Amino acid sequence: MIEENVAKDPNKLTKRQEQAMITHRRIYETASQLIAEKGFDNVTVDEICKAAGVAKGGFYHHFPSKDDLVVETYRLIDGHFVNSMDSAPQPLPAKEGILWVAEFMATTAMSRGHSFCRQIYRSQLEKGTDFFVSPERPFYKQIQTYITQSLENGEIASPLPPDELTAIILLTARGVIYDWCLLRGSYNIVSFMQKTVSAILDGIWKSC
């Protein structure tokens, strides 16, 4: 009798891996709810662990520090951004597309709140991670694609290369979010983001 060797599916998670994912998600969702209710600085790891029903060692197994909850949030936001772009009914013209990306950033900041966004900047200044400013992030890559296409089509009048123009636009967008945080969310960030980024684009786009 010949025994059949059934190959294991390499994409199928083990029960242990599935449980780890469930625990990871529970910690993150519990922490997000507490932070939304009390503010980032007013929530401790002990509180998160108690509410999520995990040991402190379990928290640090999934998140090396409380700041890593912020990084996790932005990884999820990047995924949401990619899904939004993929589900768009049709490609936007470059200028409108860049404004859409900037508006997405502003809307996301507004939904998270100025307290949470302040923590992002503080964490970045104190510890710094390449993730937030990485050219591999979908925001950067999408804007650079729009800029490159527009330069090739002769729509932009600028001697600067695509990567520098992309950096300027993202620097402007981050600056708006930073200012909004400094003023504790006292104005409509989405509207102001549109006006500010539009002013930058009007300066490099050729008049029709």
Automatic annotation (TrEMBL):
Family annotation (SUPFAM superfamilies): Homeodomain-like, Tetracyclin repressor-like, C-terminal domain
Molecular functions per Gene Ontology: DNA-binding transcription factor activity; transcription cis-regulatory region binding
Chain residues forming the annotated DNA-binding region: 44-63
PROSITE patterns in alphabetical order: HTH_TETR_1, HTH_TETR_2
Pfam families recorded: TetR_N (PF00440)
Keyword entries, A-Z: DNA-binding, Transcription, Transcription regulation
Ranges where the HTH tetR-type domain occurs: 21-81
Origin: domain of life: Bacteria
InterPro entries: DNA-bd_HTH_TetR-type_CS (IPR023772), Homeodomain-like_sf (IPR009057), HTH-type_TetR-like_transc_reg (IPR050109), HTH_TetR (IPR001647), Tet_transcr_reg_TetR-rel_C_sf (IPR036271)
PANTHER family named among the record's database cross-references: HTH-TYPE TRANSCRIPTIONAL REGULATOR BETI (PTHR30055:SF234), HTH-TYPE TRANSCRIPTIONAL REGULATOR RUTR (PTHR30055)
Protein name (record): Transcriptional regulator, TetR family
Organism: Desulfatibacillum aliphaticivorans
Phylogenetic lineage: Bacteria, Pseudomonadati, Thermodesulfobacteriota, Desulfobacteria, Desulfobacterales
